Amino acid sequence: MDYLALYILPEMSDIGLDHQSIRRFGPVLITLDASLDKPLYAQIRDQIRDRISSGALKIGERLEPSRELAKRLGVHRTTVSNAYADLEADGLIQGTVGRGTFVSPLAADLRRPSAPARRAHQDVFWQSFLAQEQRDDSLGRLMASALEPGVISFATAHGPDDLTPVDLVRRATDAVLRRDGAKLLQYGSSDGYAPLKAYLQSRARRDGIPLEADELLITNGCQQALDLIRHSLVEAGDVVVCENPTYTGLWNIFDSSDVRLIAAPVTPDGLDLDFLAAVLEQNKVKLILTSPTFHNPTGVTMPLAARKRLLELAARHQVPIVEDDIYGALRYRGRELPPLKALDTAGLVIYLNSFSKVGFSGLRVGWVAASRRVIERLRWAKQRADIHTNMLGQAVLEDLGRHGVLDKFIRRIRKEYAAKLETAERAVAQYFPPQARVTQPEGGMALWVELPAALDAGALLAKAQDRGVIFAPARYFYFHNPRHNAFRLCFSAVPNAQIESGVRILGELLHEEIGRLSRGKSAARADAGVALV
Amino acid sequence: MDYLALYILPEMSDIGLDHQSIRRFGPVLITLDASLDKPLYAQIRDQIRDRISSGALKIGERLEPSRELAKRLGVHRTTVSNAYADLEADGLIQGTVGRGTFVSPLAADLRRPSAPARRAHQDVFWQSFLAQEQRDDSLGRLMASALEPGVISFATAHGPDDLTPVDLVRRATDAVLRRDGAKLLQYGSSDGYAPLKAYLQSRARRDGIPLEADELLITNGCQQALDLIRHSLVEAGDVVVCENPTYTGLWNIFDSSDVRLIAAPVTPDGLDLDFLAAVLEQNKVKLILTSPTFHNPTGVTMPLAARKRLLELAARHQVPIVEDDIYGALRYRGRELPPLKALDTAGLVIYLNSFSKVGFSGLRVGWVAASRRVIERLRWAKQRADIHTNMLGQAVLEDLGRHGVLDKFIRRIRKEYAAKLETAERAVAQYFPPQARVTQPEGGMALWVELPAALDAGALLAKAQDRGVIFAPARYFYFHNPRHNAFRLCFSAVPNAQIESGVRILGELLHEEIGRLSRGKSAARADAGVALV
Does A173 touch chain B (CB under 8 A)? Predict the structure, then answer.
């Protein structure tokens, strides 16, 4: 056991630390037993960890300097340093130059049970497949069942088939292939098709975002933009703050063992800025990820004053903000708000958008607007990722944009979706029991439904599915501490007539379930298991 | 300096190691000086490193066990362990359980000068931009200049504009949008458009590769397949064997500080299998990357016997092979050879191909065929990367494929490219000096030209560019120990008339340069600088 030998230094035996030595460590006791197989540094580490998780050592509390603790425990300083290093790597403590070592505010957030399991299988190639994480593919199955005939699906966030702009795309494709066909079938530029970039620049200018060409990168939708950001701007051990809940495809990227992903609560005004301020105060944060307009899945929108405060916080700590504005164009009521990027005087906002939620998901075209330095990095990553985005989709969208067809189409679907939202809200008011609290979003594609604490949306889904209706349980949107008594109800893809019947079926089911709850409260609670308020 | 304190242990002063102590270490001397600022472990490490690079310690030579060396040097064992750990992290030595520690065969390959620079800037976000690697964008500039009017470009590997199948794509796009338009504009499946997968299965079966649907994944060309493999199959510290030279976009992905990328020489029969056998014998290799048919940039093809031996080696060591077959369809002469995947009985080959070299680069559609377990992993990575490949490109290629149009078109361009190859070879025979050795590939898009050792293809390019002709100097294709006296001459994109005039201009330049060489040999050698044989 060479590894252990590194830590159990010979002087241990020399200083009379025989079988058990108990000393006071700040407010707690550290018990060292040299006769154990477990190295001394690990004994120290694990006992401090236990004190933190029990609350005996509180967040923000200062730890004894390693030199002093080593002296008091009668061990070599290396032993304490090793214990501290492990605790720091786990995000439980953190050092600040010139101030000391403190219990980290991440201590409450970072002990995700899956992390060690993930790290465990870095061994033989084939073994790593066998030992592979048991990934949760129930979301994939849910999305697949949305395609089954006869199913009313409130599960996924996209437009209805009958509103896809097939004829517009068909005519535009024909036009661009006639005009620029040879070029569109050849390799293109990694930063994007120049005419599309020019069109997006003019569009951004209109929205109050003046952009140079080298501040813009075309991607395969926002998903790729997030993946490029992950791979080119975030390094091992970096701290990233992310809304919890959030879009599943976002946390799937950032929730890995080598990123310290901090779960920021989402309030009715969006990302919790008091929480964020505290995190920024105490951590070197690499990125803040947020979707301030029609947040997925909750639909909440950050008010103007909060947007300004968020930008001030980011500027003070010089932390870039990734702003996902994918739903921004889908406002049906309330006052238009500027995206963070339009308010960004410090050049810290990395702005993402795409054509995926306005009728063109299958073309896979989106874009990033950010400082030249960020775009330069992302462009290299894009080149490594797939050389460039498909040319045909880019050219079609440029053609539709330049001729004003795109804006006209977006106005049309905004009207259609607004009507769907109204239909959904009327049906909810009529059929849902009062115990189900439903948001009133000003835009986006979904309602967010909060249930009594004892109801589990996953169990509800199974029953709803039997009746031909599906939705997305809240838990898919949480990377930490999942909420079970809520779900997302996407109205955008559902034909109007089905919205009402679907909501009626769900309402009946909710009445039954809540009735059952009040009839046998204790039994229902036992069923609900891990339900959280 | 806490960091150093970890290593200069107190017992140092106790054992009479005063200012300088010289002891024999195997065949070499280790000199320790406790008065230096440099910690003892670093002194040991650096001296062993020097002995390895000077050849005093040879590859495969056994190092003294750390316990014994520590005793002989009179230092704590931790000190030697730390030195060994650093040397191992740098790939200079390696331990084999039960056998000891040896100088690694990687010692010759892994000391890439850029690696420490890369690791250095993991600090502040914005600083990391400023400190960013000085990336070599001369290749980007070269590719851009290929688009300038009047330039004869042998630089890039694609088809000519006048052969792009614009009308075929236009008709197919119209047909698929009429047939399946709503579906093509919606989100699709991460593993690919089902009809295209079915078509590729039938095509693979024809090529002797029976495939199930879950052994196939659609990607945005081979580039994305390589990136997905990098991110989902390769972990920090893994050893990957790669041909050197190889496709620039491949080594850009794998040549990172956390991968041990071993440069395998390319022989006239492809990947050097004797070298590979030795590497596999002595390392736990995670992946072998190879392009056995019309290798880019050299154009060499691995004979059947070598293919079988490669598969045997991989099977014996249970190491997967990534086979890039992107040029496989472009054979103009010689006998058709089965891809590795068709000979693969052990299920170890991860086969990559795309439609990018047969006229459809801009659509960004490629595929991976591999075992179910590999595809499952890549599919998750694909979902994180960009959800799915653009639907329009997939549907167009399926439509062209199913109607036989694709095969007919590939036959046509094969004929056209064969004629271009003949033209290029005739011109080379007529205009190039005999000192320029040119390959005779059986397919692909390029000739590979080897120059006298004293000529630098980069310097030659600058002069050729002044005369309106460009090509790709060899160095872009090497991630290690770049060769300077060679270049790739792509004929596929150049109109026939320009092939001859371009080769004539290059031939004149080569005659001049070689004439200058023989007139003033020593002066020319000084010019050539780092030229290697």
Answer: yes
